[in-house]
Amino acid sequence: MKFQIRIQLYLVFITTIASVVPNVVMAAPGFVSKVNNTVTTNSNNTYWTPQRLQNAKPLNLPKPTNQLTTQTVPLAGTPVSASGQAPTINIAPDLQNKLFQPRQTNSVANEQLVQPNNAGSARAYFTSSRLVPLSADLVYPYRAVGKLFFTIPGQGDFVCSGAVIKPRIVLTAGHCVHGGSGGQKGFFTNFLFVPAYRDGAAPYKSWSWSYVLTPDAWAKGNGVVPNAADYAVIEINDLPFKGVYRKIGQVTGSLGFKTFSLFPNHATLLGYPGNLDNGNKMHQVNAQSFRTRTPNSVEYGSDMRGGSSGGPWIQNFGVASVGQNGGQNPSLNQIIGITSYGPASTDLLFQGSSVPDSRFVNMLNTICNRRPGNC
User: I want to staple 304 with a disulfide (CB 3.0 to 4.6 A). Which of 97, 102, 262, 273 is the partner?
Assistant: First the structure.
């Protein structure tokens, strides 16, 4: 009885502390999280000057640091899925909303440069292209994808890719938000998401963050890839449009997701690789599953490099035609993977993704339950 009373008193104490100090966050078991204590609305985000945005560098793709062994246990589980959602309000894009003037010369390090091809020496076949037409980035489902700017303390400003996956939630790679060790101190900061970014423009404005969450598998994995759960979610602050505050998903639409569907499958990989168009235009790769890797990862052919990290791998990308229905895997615009790593050699031409599994679902449930209206 005394033990039960002590437990109850302890829970009351914890609940009281959390209510008095709103920035105390009880992270769900298996995850590490951080609250943005410096920016509460997009209107007072003063960190990102045009010069800082211009100087932000593509974050290099993590290179495999453990022995690449073929996965022997089938990557199987009961799939959990959610549908995407087209924009619910009609916001006209504003390509005159220039955040900065992009550099005209290629600033990518030589080790990132690749010779674009439809297959590298690993013989992982793919198709790689600019969007056709370029203005496709203003249309759903492309417009749910964007460029993520952020700061690594002590190192500088960087860029990754990401995608809107719920009304207030952006999905990206774990290594785009956290260094892989150090608990809360391992988080990066100053996250700024620009959906449908193109050539320095933010046609649907730029959005700051309020909360970030990533699984222990990444946050405590010391940066080793392949990683069982190299993904993360960021809660995004609302923005005013004609005086009415809107959630980012209302403006851009959101992509769905499906777990345990990365192998076998084929997908459209989207992102902003610094080695192609200097990362100033959205890029797409179409490929099929090439091989599985330990732990819990799959590789697809791709010539994208740094800056594409965190970009979505989407099954059945696009809009259905009249007469298209049925089939064994019919759901449109569902994320089945997130760009996690790439090889050190530039002639291999593939990228890897962790397989979204129960950790992915728990991560989404956690951030969805954090604030009413997130999902």
Answer: 273
SS (H, E, C) 301-316: ECCCCCCCCCCEEEEC
| C-alpha torsion sign, points 330, 127, 56, 360 | positive
3-state secondary structure 6-52: HHHHHHHHHHHHHHHCCCCCCCCCCEEEEECCCCCCHHHCCCCCHHH
Mean pLDDT of the chain: 88
* pLDDT range class, residue 71, cuts 50, 70, 90: low
Average pLDDT, integer, range 132-141: 97
Of the options 3.10.20.30, 2.40.10.120, 2.30.30.50, 2.130.10.10, the CATH number for the domain spanning 31-319+330-370: 2.40.10.120
DSSP 3-state helix, strand, coil percentages of the chain (rounded to 5)?
20, 30, 50
User: 209 pairs with which residues across the strands?
Assistant: 236
Task: List the chain domain ranges.
Answer: 31-319+330-370
Which is higher by pLDDT, 300 or 12?
300
CA distances 115 to 108, 121, 124, Å, are 14, 12, 14
Give the integer Cα–Cα distance in Å for 374 and 167.
6
Which pLDDT score is estimated for 68?
Answer: 60
Q: Which residues pair with 170 in a beta bridge?
A: 164, 234
Count of C-beta atoms within a 10 Å radius of residue 251:
25
Give pLDDT, residue 60: 95
Nearest to 266 by CA among 69, 81, 124, 122: 124
In the three-class reduction of DSSP (H, G, I as helix; E, B as strand; rest coil), residue 269 is classed as strand
Tokens of 271: 């992102």
Q: Which two tokens stand for residue 191?
A: 């996250």
Q: What is the pTM of this model?
A: 0.90
- How far, in Å, CA of 207 to CA of 43, rounded? 9
Nearest by Cα to 214 from 79, 342, 367:
367
Mean pLDDT in residue range 287-313: 96
pLDDT level of residue 109 (50, 70, 90 thresholds): low
Q: What is the DSSP letter of 331?
A: -
Question: Which two tokens mark 133?
Answer: 């037409």
